[in-house]
Amino acid sequence: MAIADNLKFDDQGLIPAIACDHATGEVLMLAYMNRESLAATLETGNATYWSRSRQKLWVKGETSGHLQKVKWLRTDCDKDALLVGVEQIGVACHTGRRGCFFYELRDGEWVATCEPEVDPDEVYGQR
């Protein structure tokens, strides 16, 4: 039995994968995996996701150099979501911030709680 056989993928064959810092638990980003990306992640040790917009595998950091080295993998009690403990090399967010969850609701407004650490145009080119 394959590891993926124990997981519950949605009707599109995807499972949410929340990447967090393996040591601190800081949530970095949310992406999705399918069976193929999960297998690639386990084989290479690099977080590999399914890009819903591009409809292809996506190794986090393959173009930017901002890799995620997988240290551990967990699933929830229903086995329908993954928590991926990673060593984040560089930043996780395409906006140049460490993580994607940087907006906080304050007095009814979404406010950015941090500034970019890198210029996203330099990392990803013109967006």
Topology, element by element:
Layout: E1 15-21, E2 27-33, H1 35-44, E3 48-51, E4 56-59, E5 68-75, E6 82-88, E7 103-106, E8 109-112, H2 120-124
Parallel strand pairs: 1-6
Antiparallel strand pairs: 1-2, 3-4, 5-6, 7-8
Describe this structure in words.
The chain has 127 residues and is mainly beta. It is built from two helices and eight strands, in the order ββαββββββα. Strands 2-1-6-5 form a four-stranded mixed β-sheet, covered by helices on one side. Strands 3-4 form a two-stranded antiparallel ribbon. The protein has a domain at 3-90: Roll (Ubiquitin-like (UB roll)). It is globular and about 45 Å long.
Concise overview:
The chain is mostly beta strands and 127 residues long.
Order of helices and strands: EEHEEEEEEH
Instruction: Evaluate the radius of gyration.
Output: 15 Å
Give helix % range: 10-25%
CATH architecture of the domain at 3-90: Roll
Stated plainly, the CATH topology of the domain at 3-90 is called: Ubiquitin-like (UB roll)
What are the segments in which pLDDT stays under 50 over at least 5 consecutive residues?
A: none
Number of helices: 2
* Average residue-wise pLDDT: 94
CATH superfamily of the domain at 3-90: Phosphoribosyl-AMP cyclohydrolase
Shape: globular
The first-level CATH class of the domain at 3-90 is given as Alpha Beta
